[in-house]
Design a protein that fits this description.
Helix content is about 70%, strand content about 0%. With about 100 residues, the protein is an all-alpha fold. The protein is globular and about 40 Å long.
Length: about 100
């Protein structure tokens, strides 16, 4: 079991090392996308956000999600794999959200 967890953590570190850090401009763009009334745009925003280095921007990502929470949760992207990855990275369990 320990070996499996170690390997998983190592894979996550390798994956995370290739991710970009969020800039202020990125946050503004993502906020506009996540706040959109167009479900496709919200889904694209979540997909883009999941590709960033979230652990280095936990507070910013948390604020971004909270400020757009109603729009995100009313969208099917709320249940997407990308959104689940974001929540997992932030240390938020499914039980806490649903």
């Amino acid at each position: 079991m320990i070996h499996k967890e170690y390997r998983r953590q190592r894979q996550m570190c390798i994956r995370d090392s290739n991710l970009s850090n969020l800039t202020e401009d990125d946050l503004k763009s993502l906020s506009g996308m996540l706040g959109s009334q167009d479900p496709t745009v919200v889904g694209m925003g979540i997909k883009l956000l999941s590709g960033y280095n979230i652990p280095d921007s936990v507070c910013s990502v948390g604020i971004l999600l909270m400020s757009n929470w109603n729009t995100i949760t009313s969208n099917s992207a709320f249940k997407s794999v990308g959104f689940q990855q974001i929540l997992n990275t932030l240390g938020i369990s499914e039980r806490e959200v649903y």
